[in-house]
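Sample pair:
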Amino acid sequence: MTNWKNRFVMRPSTSSANLWVTLSWPGKEPEKPSILPDGRDWEEVLSDGGVAALPDDLWLEPWNSGRRVDWLWGGLSECIVSRRFLQILVEHGVPGVEYRPLTIRRKRSADVEGYYLLCLPAPGVGNVVRRYPSDGRTPGMLVDGAVAEAILAAQLTGISMTSVEEEYGELEQRRREVECRLQIFGSAAGALPSEAGVLPSEAGAPAREGETSAGHTDGVACEANEVNEAEAPTGWTVRSVDGNRRLASDWDSRYILHANDLIGDANAMSVELSWTGKDPMRPNQLPDGQDIGEVLVVRGIDALPEALWLDVVSYGEQTDWLWTIGCGLVVSRRFLDLLILEAVPGIEYRRLSVRWSSGATPQNVPSDGTPRNAPSDATPQNAPSDGTPRNVPSDGESLDSAEITDNIEDYFLLRVHATAPDAPLRLFPRNDPHAYRLDVDAMLFEKIKNAGLREISATAAREIWDELRSEAAWLDNRMREIAAE
C-alpha cells in the first residue's frame, strides 16, 4: 500500500476563461457527440483499445475563445494536455501512457498544434499516474507526490489539484448528505428517523465554530452506527450508503418542486433578500449575528427585520417562483392566491418590494406599471395589504389593495412550516434553513400544474430517490477506490 497522504487527484479546470475543446471527426452528429460514424462510442473505444483503436481522422474544435492552458477541458472524457504536460509524464517514466497529437482547428484563425490526447494506464495500486475514477468516463488522474511537485514547479496551467485526503473528505461529506436524504425517503412522508438537535449550516459547507455538522445535514441527524463500516487507511472509515433501503410508499404520490433560473436559453429574474446593514461578505447573517434562514425556519416571518426587501441579482422574465440567491422562497401573488384558495395549512407570507439599481434596465416589465399576475375573479379576500405576515388571513383584506412597486408585480416571501405526513405542502428537505424546494402531494401538484404557473420544475419523488441510490453507489465505489491506495 502506498502512502496515500502523498497522493493527489488532478482534473482540468472548468473555468470558462480557459479554452474548451471537443473531439471531432467527419460527419459528427451534434446530437450524438460521442458516437463515431460506425456507431461505436469513442469513449468506450479509447478505454478498451487505446488511442490506436480510434479513427485516423480526428481533430479538436474550440468551444469558446478562452486562453490556451496546459490541460484543456473537453466536456466528456477527453484528456487533452500540452507538450509540457506530456513531457513531465515521460520524464517520470510513467508506464502505460498512450498519446496522440491532435490539431485544434479554428475557423477564423490559424490551427493550433502542440496538444495531445492521452490514454492513461489501467488502475493499479501504487501507479505513479493512473485514471481516476477508475471506472468513470473522466479526464481526471491520480498522481504521486513527485509528479505533483514537478507539475507545480513547471507552473502548468489549467489544472485543479486536490490531495487524496481532501478528496476523501469531500466524498465522505457528500455521502452523509445522500444517506440522510435516503433516510428521509425511506420513512413515511414527513416522518424523519431522528431529529437534529442543531440546525445545520449550509449543505456541504464547514460548520461554524461551536456548531455540530458531522452527521447532520438537511435537518436530519444521521448516526454513524446506522451504517456498515470497513476500516480504511490512516483512521478513515468507509461507511456504505444503504442504497437498498426501500422507498416508503407514501412518497409515490408526492412531487418535489423548485424554481427555474433559466427560461430556454435566457435568464429568469433572480433575487436575494436584503436588509439595512447587510454585509456582502456574510450574505445570510443579520446585523445581530443570526442566520436569516434559521430565524425564518425556527421563529417565523415575524422575527425577521421590518426593513426587508428583494434585490434583483439578474434581470429577466418575472416568473411565479423567483430563483433566490441564498435563502427564502419568493413567490408571485398568483402562486400565493392558489395556496390560499386551496386552504393550504402551515404557511406564512410577507409582501416584499423589489429593488434594482437606478441605471439598470429590467427586461420583460410591463410598460403601464400594472402587475402581470392580476388576480382572477376568485381573488381571495384574505391576503396582506400592509406587508405584515399572516398565519391565518383575516376577513376583509384583499390582495387588490397591494401596492405596485416600480413595474414589478407583487412578490411574497413564503415560509412553509407544515410537517405532518398528510400535509399537502412541506419544505424539502424539512427544517433546512437553506432549502429551495417544496414537497407537494398529488392533488396540490395537479392544481399548480393546471393553474399555468410559470417556470416551475417538478420531479416525482421516486425519480429523486432513484437518482440518490445511483449516487450512493457511485460514492461508495470512489471511497473504496481511494481506501485501496
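Residues 192-244, 358-405 have pLDDT under 50 and may be disordered.
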